[in-house]
Amino acid sequence: MSVKVPKAVYSERALAIAARTFSRRAEVFVEETKTHWVLTLEPRAKEALAALEGDFLNEALSQECRFLTAEFNETIASLQETQALLAARGGEAPAAPVKPDAALEKEAAALMAAVRKGGKS
Amino acid sequence: MAVLERTESAPPRRAPRLSALPGADGVRLAGEKVGAGAYRKVGERWLVTADHGGWSLLAEADLRAYLEGRLDPAGAVYAELRARGLVRDQLDFQALSDAWAAKDAFLFRAPNLHIVVATLRCNHKCLYCHSSVFGVERTDKDMTLDTARKTVDLIFECPSPALIIEFQGGEPLLNWPVVKFVTRYAALKARAAGRTVFVTMVSNFSLMDEEKARFLTEHKVSVCTSLDGHAALHDANRRWSGGASHSETARWLRWFKEQGTFEPGALMTTTRASLAEPERIVDEYLALGLPGIFLRPLSPLGFARRSWGTIGYSVDEFLRFYRRALDYILLVNRRGTLFYERHLLTLMTKALLGRDPGYVDLRSPSGGAFGVLAYDHDGGVYTGDESRMVAQDGETLFRIGEVGKTSYNELFDAPVVKASALASALEHQPLCSQCTYRPWCGQDPVYNAMTQRSVWGRMPDSGRCRLYMGLFDILFEKMQVPEDRAVLESWLSRAPEPSPRGPEPEERETKEPK
Fold first, then answer.
1. Do residues B386 and B446 touch, judged by C-beta distance below 8 A?
2. Tell me, what's the ipTM?
3. pLDDT tens digits for A38-49?
4. B501 shares contact with chain A (CB less than 8 Å)
5. CB proximity under 8 Å: B 171-190 to A
6. How do residues B300-327 score in pLDDT, each as one tens digit?
7. What domains, with CATH codes, occur in chain A?
8. Among B127, B311, B403, B501, which residue is least crowded by beta carbons within 10 Å?
9. How far apart are CA B465 and CA B469, in angstroms?
10. Smallest Cα distance from A56 to chain B, Å
11. Ranges A94-98, B85-89, B387-391, B453-457: which has the least confidence
12. How far apart are CA B499 and CA B112, in angstroms?
């Protein structure tokens, strides 16, 4: 089945991501005219073509909206993601790492031996 | 994780995802006055919210007056909106900043929840098992002691001053030596590092005995189990050839409760068989003296995914069940017993107390990796327990390292961690970025990947989105009924604390290893 969608609404990038998302469900082939993309969807298993087309266009539209939303909110979202990544590594005052400790090593070895000796009980 | 919609047995009567104010085109927005970012019709009123978590429930006439900047500055509505940081030309930026930081405190902490899978073996055959467990004979699915030691070593590379180690499964008691070792070794490491470590275990209790139970209480290992309701329902869901699962669960719940070391926890999973009898399920929890219940939907993982046709249901069916259960719980409270529902209490902790309840499923960016890490029996490290579970179904996208080979910081270099952070930031999601519930909600890239084949997901037809939107709607509907609101506010005394704290920084820096 083929469907024509306007280039003014759907970017090639959105269609490519949508096609990848749908790769287990259908193969998507793209051709173009001056103003439209011509999409051919070949389902991998038997299913209603109208539903497949609708779901695919929903996914493509969702991707397109996401680009716009992400661009609009880029500053605040980037700040939060950076903060999350920084905090995961301990932020500005990470707890001190556990230093090599001979006494701890000895205790740990004894603990492992004791547990091994105890078997699976 | 939440409901995967596979069935639609009743005509859907859903609240729309976004609410339109009738005649909104005629509203002349006073941009300099309006501090709220979104509004939504909930019950008879309009909920307005702002990024920092301020909210108010307005009558429609007041909403129009607010949007047009016509509210009387001497009136009660204006005063409330101003106090909650919703009047744009009256903002206290320091207070707003503090509120935002308290609400999203997780953004300032390293992941403190570390899930350890001591074994993938289990002696139960639960209909909905999300972990795709193996039979008891498969000892190759046990974590070895060497892997356990490397796991604890990696956990202690995490810079969080307070760490929670949670045994999940499989049934952890099937690999008791590793449970004992991890518990003791973590205590040694914590002492040496001047950290605080809490150990918890999720178990079906069927292999519990007095010796194990005493070890757990002596080492302050808190326990949590599954309890789906009365015996017939529980045993039908949680099949065990060795006996009656419910009676062992109830027996050991009572035992741990009697010890008084800690309050044992219980988790309820809703199957299709549960939908008809929410009152009996609540009664069972009351009979066992539990302080509340966590009404959880099925997740589209593991055995549940495969047996959805038998045990699954739609989001709308779950929400109807939830409403009925909640109405009964509210009645129980009005009759004098304080008994809470944990989903709603979690949402209330965020919205009413303005603080982080430590719930990793509702965060932006997602709590995967940033709030929780999971360590599989074979040493694989995942961005969370669900990530580890879906690997059993062949989706290994969320595996980010291996104990003994990957350093803690390298875990966060994994492309999927950054992709998940980007994908799950609500500001990047078309529907979420406009949603009234955005200040308190969160995405799950694992759920999205499993149900919609993309970490980004597609919220307009996401069952998880509809589930949480439904739960938030229920909360704010109940907040409009004075007697229900009084009950809900009484639960706040049991609100989950923010993530546990470690020793104060000065103490950490000066404490010498013993």
1. yes
2. 0.88
3. 999 999 988 888
4. no
5. 175-177, 180-181, 184-185, 188-189
6. 888 888 889 999 999 999 999 999 999 9
7. 2-83 (3.30.310)
8. B501
9. 6
10. 11
11. A94-98
12. 8
